[in-house]
Amino acid sequence: MQTIGGIPVWGEPIDPGAFEQIKRCAGNADRAAMMADHHLGYSVPIGGVLAYKDHVSPSGVGYDIGCGNKAVRLDLHYSDIRDRMADIMEQIFKTVAFGVGRRNNEEVDHALFDDDAWRLDATAPLKQMAREQLGTVGSGNHYVDVFTDEFDRVWIGVHFGSRGLGHKTATWFLRAGGAKDGIHTDPLLLNVHSVLGGDYVEAMQLAGAYAYAGRDWVCARVAALLGASILEEVHNHHNFAWQENHYGEALWVVRKGATPAFPGQRGFVGASMGEKAVIIEGVESEESKPALYSTIHGAGRVMSRKQAKREIGEDAMLEWVKRANVELRGAGVDEAPQAYKRLDQVLEHHKASIRILHELMPVGVAMAGPYERDPYKD
Predict the structure, then answer these.
(1) Domain extents in the chain
(2) What is d(CA 158, CA 72) in angstroms, rounded to the nearest whole number?
(3) How confident is the model at residue 374 (pLDDT cuts 50, 70, 90)?
(4) Which residues are CB-contacts of 120 (< 8 A; sequence separation ≥ 6)?
(5) For position 377, what pLDDT does the model report?
(6) Which residue from 21, 205, 210, 360 lies 20 to 30 Å from 122 (Cα-Cα)?
């Protein structure tokens, strides 16, 4: 950890654009920090953590409200499915809806559709769309993966958020609050005691519950495809705001592309399509408090999507995946392993505040196809 201008920062080298963003954000925040997987985001860097006494930031939470990771361990060993991986990934790719604006192939109902927050001006017009999209994965870096751990046990891991509900909700509040457009702009702050700020908190929590429900459904559906039962679950948001106590104060902590990691709290952290992921657990340390008990949510990008498309050939991406023995469905070169930092190196920067419980090697990866546009700015 380095402290630069009063801001604790993890990772090396430090992305100058991301640091410029967190420095600007820190001017209006009570506390700020930046995780080792940081890179440039909209107004607030990915990997940025900001805390406010009476405010939340729709810019900080971002467009994909409640995006997060879930991993489940099944009552299977890899030896049970090794010979069926091509068929399994084909089934997953056909059963789960990947891509922009997709509807679930199956009708899904959930108690969250009875939530009072659907009365809000921002969310009321979105209810039917949200019903249709619950359990869809989307595009970009969102995935459904099959992993095996150090004991040959099978895990399912997913990464996605609140879909069109989150994107349209965020857009509504950013416009209503008068947010400035652009990467290097001050984040929009809403007082939680105002009508608009209170409505945002309620809508954000609805979108977060929706994201959780979608990840629950996908993990359960994939387990059913494999004829397996779920024995263990690890589930976390990033792109969210929580009211927490830090340094003796009640603060709203906004984590954009950063994961809560309180002592004993577990998390699932993915990397790229051709590298290991990890199950981690927060521990108490001298670095935990300045991080506001936060850690990384992934490996972090070293190339933008446009740069990756220019500089990484499909053959190079597929060669990496082949060496890793991964059965791949979908994906484009903008998500190639070469576009990401190496997870081991990123984790090393946070070794004081987390411990690794399991290493998960991908054996199957499913993502949206290479020609899908990613509408999420974060």
Answers:
(1) 60-176+206-235+261-367
(2) 9
(3) low
(4) 199, 202, 203
(5) 44
(6) 21
**Cβ-based neighbours of 229, under 8 Å, separated by 6 or more:** 74, 75, 223
Question: What are the pLDDT digits (tens) for 311-330?
Answer: 999 999 999 999 999 999 99
Residue tagged 């006494």 (tokens): 53
Q: How would DSSP label each residue in 251-262?
A: EEEEEESEEE--
6 φ/ψ angles, rounded to the nearest 5 degrees: 85, 0
Question: What gap in Å lies between CA 204 and CA 169, rounded to an integer?
Answer: 8
Q: Please answer whether residues 143 and 365 qualify as being in contact, where contact means their C-beta atoms are separated by less than 8 angstroms.
A: yes
* Single pTM value for the model: 0.95
Among residues 178, 2, 173, 148, which one has the least CA distance to residue 81? 148
**Arithmetic mean of pLDDT over the chain:** 95
Domain range 60-176+206-235+261-367, CATH class = alpha beta
pLDDT at 371: 67
User: What is the total residue count of the chain?
Assistant: 378
pLDDT band, residue 102 (cuts 50/70/90): confident
